[in-house]
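Structural biology now treats backbone shape like a language. To illustrate, our science desk offers a sequence and the tokens encoding its fold:
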Amino acid sequence: MTAAARAITRRAHAKINVFLRVLGRRDDGFHDIETLVLPISLHDVVTATQAPPGVRTLHVDGDRELARAVETGLGDNLAGRAVEALARRTGRGTSDAGIELRIDKRIPVAAGLAGGSADAAAALLATDEVWGCGLGREAALEIGAELGSDVPAMLAGEPVLATGRGERLTAVHAASIWWVLRPFDLGVRSADAYAWWDETPATGPDPGVLVAALETGDVELLGDALFNDLQPPVAARHPEIAGDVVDCTLRRDDLVRLAERGRRRRPDRVAHRVARDERGRDDRRAEHQAEHDQARSPPPASDVADAEPDENGVPQHEHGQHPGHHPERHREYREQRVERDAEELVHDVTGTAGRSAYATR
């Protein structure tokens, strides 16, 4: 018998820039920046699978429109280039190690959410694990900096203050907050946005108050303090963005009310609690019953007979899990439920339809 190919799956979380200060253009063509990068619950899924020597491939699935916008050549896709960089760093030629990358695409392309950089970070870490390279954090960050300015922050996997051109990182505490992302039917390349900034350079204020507001969960102060130095030059060329900024400003009180519901609460409970309060516990429980049954396998009769019930009357194993508990399936179910609750709440508050509400990761 042939052993099953080793496969590692990682989530590639999108990010938002809570603020972005552009300090100036450097001699190497990059820009010195200061920004707070915040991972959010929106994510792609990247799977690296051991392949025969000489075989290195990349497939992109998921949302059809998004998948069509992504290059699938190893040399053209940032995730593919991450694998090649790892191979060079560890001396693994194509004749020594093969890999198959598969990306389930969910993050919009060219939307300032670092989807490509997140995929590259996930591909680098997953391939390192499949190949057993033992790449350390510092080496991974060095490779990430070579790949792109956003990749180091995506490798960090936590809120960070990024300086230099994005490669110098300092961890930052961030309160759990819900964010509403407004999608547009247009994409802006980072290189274009920075080139437009160069035409009329302007650097934003000191972000100390903003960082403190994020750390403490003061969403009203945070909302007033948000800024991005690339927004004015981009909005000047895309008036629809400027119009939506005005619209969101007019809806400020509603958006703050939405964000406050997530303040200092666990993101995986916020939307469920709000929906439960507003729509009724019994209706909510009935709506999810079918999905709940699918997410957990039925327990063996002997387990039910022997297990002690918890405070909700649900039998527990000695180690604390529900009978028939499957952690990964249950987590997926819970996150789908929370995202749906959040979408309905965002629609009620802002009138924005579609997938737009995401929690601080």
Remarks:
- The first strand starts at residue 7 and ends at 25.
- The longest helix spans residues 327-350.
